[in-house]
Design a protein that fits this description.
Blueprint (H helix, E strand, L loop, with lengths): L2 H4 L7 H19 L3 H19 L9 H16 L13 E4 L2 E4 L3 H5 L2 H7 L12 H22 L5 H14 L1 H6 L6 H16 L3 H14 L4 H15 L3 H25 L11 H9 L2 H13 L5 H4 L10 H7 L2 H20 L14 H21 L2 H25 L7
Antiparallel strand pairs: 1-2
């Protein structure tokens, strides 16, 4: 399918339209001739440049969550320990098991350590050390997540279409405004989940489990994605092999989490009071109406709705049934795991994610459901009218603008204001 066909618009000047079509056709043919490694570098380079230019460049004004995530990495890189007693007055920093530490999960606490080894400094003049190494880590991992996703999508569509779909994913969802903007847990988690997805494509169940285990160290609730994926593949193939291998790989991540919790937090619980117990308590006390409100809010709340900030996703819904029918097992397993992940997550935490506006909790769902959503969109697009196709691309543009708006105003990025 030609990109010129995908980008159909009402003709005005036949000569210009013909020239545009030829240029787009040549670009598509050129991309289609590239190897997966080449298109990976193309997508990764495009996303990384964009993310580095627009990432947050402030320190203490950053989200309290991202500051608490970055400080252990800085401390460990510069001093070899995680003692944060000098920051005890800050949110999410406090005494746990006799030590003053961050209450963030181990995966997100140490993911930026290499950047702080390379570019950090012991000395700082502000309230906290520079957040730039941590934020650059978020940008780097988010760009890599989009690039790995594109490799998975190449199994479903042409290389040019996979590149286009990945760029849309990387600019029209809050992967840009959240994952790549500061050191939230979502960027690293999306990267590891994308690696797990790629391993599923190659039928490497143990590698998929190991990638999911790494994601679990950053966001423990993603264990749902590992569990559902492995069980679904085992059920459909009538084999215990994917169940065992995915479970073995992800179980290694869970074991590391438990060891960390015991050594640092003084408990073997996977949901210690510092970062998990309150969510479990909320799941047990939330009413049915409250849960329904969170589900609807996640989708359509004016300030936090997924379909409000990324309205292009609406065009994937009409073709879901056909997309599911066309999907390979790995696409179905991953899509189902993403759906169940968000349904469980909304029992554990509010849909707003503590943001002034925008969404962040559906990001893990989106990256594992992306292959299914692409097939669903294509099934719809094949029978859509030219007007509806143009409307879809307008929705993509609106989604990109919403992400720019979130970066510019929502986070008061000084490079853009």
């Amino acid at each position: 399918m030609r990109l010129g066909y995908l980008l159909m618009r009402r003709p005005r000047d036949p000569m210009k339209d013909d020239m545009t079509s030829r240029v787009l056709a040549r670009a598509q043919d050129r991309i289609d001739s590239l190897s997966p490694a080449s298109t990976f570098l193309l997508v990764f380079g495009l996303m990384l440049v964009l993310y580095l230019v627009t990432m947050a460049r402030f320190d203490f004004e950053s989200s309290t969550d991202t500051v608490a995530s970055a400080l252990p990495a800085w401390r460990f890189a510069q001093f070899g320990d995680i003692d944060l007693s000098q920051f005890e007055q800050l949110p999410w920093i406090g005494e746990i098991n006799g030590s003053v530490i961050s209450n963030r999960t181990p995966g997100i606490s140490f993911i930026a350590t290499p950047m702080y080894w390379l570019f950090g400094s012991r000395d700082f003049s502000g309230v906290v050390p520079s957040m730039l190494p941590a934020t650059a880590t978020a940008a780097l991992m988010s760009a890599a997540a989009v690039a790995v996703l594109h490799v998975c999508l190449r199994r479903l569509v042409t290389p040019a279409a996979a590149v286009a779909a990945a760029v849309v994913f990387g600019t029209a969802t809050s992967t840009w405004s959240i994952s790549a903007n500061e050191l939230w847990p979502h960027g690293p988690t999306q990267f590891f989940l994308a690696l797990g997805l790629l391993a599923l494509v190659a039928s490497r169940s143990l590698a998929a489990g190991a990638a999911y285990g790494a994601a679990l160290l950053v966001r423990p609730v993603t264990a749902i994605i590992a569990g559902v994926s492995g069980l679904y593949l085992g059920w459909k193939t009538r084999s215990w092999r994917p169940v065992f291998l995915v479970g073995l790989g992800s179980g290694a991540g869970l074991a590391l989490l438990l060891v960390y919790n015991q050594l640092v937090l003084g408990t073997w619980s996977p949901v210690p009071p510092s970062y998990g117990q309150s969510f479990v308590a909320r799941a047990g006390s939330q009413s049915a109406w409250g849960y329904l409100g969170d589900v609807l809010g996640m989708l359509a709340h004016p300030k936090h709705g997924l379909l409000v900030f990324s309205p292009f996703l609406l065009f994937t819904l009409p073709g879901l049934r056909e997309g599911w029918r066309r999907a390979d097992l790995w696409v179905r397993a991953s899509g189902l795991s993403g759906l169940l992940f968000i349904l469980v997550h909304l029992r554990l935490n509010r849909h707003s994610g503590g943001l002034l506006y925008g969404y962040r909790y559906p990001l893990e769902m989106l990256i594992v459901m992306a292959p299914l959503l692409l097939l669903s969109w294509r099934a719809w697009f094949e029978r859509a009218t030219p007007f509806m196709r143009r409307l879809f691309w307008l929705a993509v543009g609106a989604s990109v603008v919403r992400q720019i708006y979130s970066i510019w105003l929502g986070f008061e990025n000084p490079w853009l204001v």
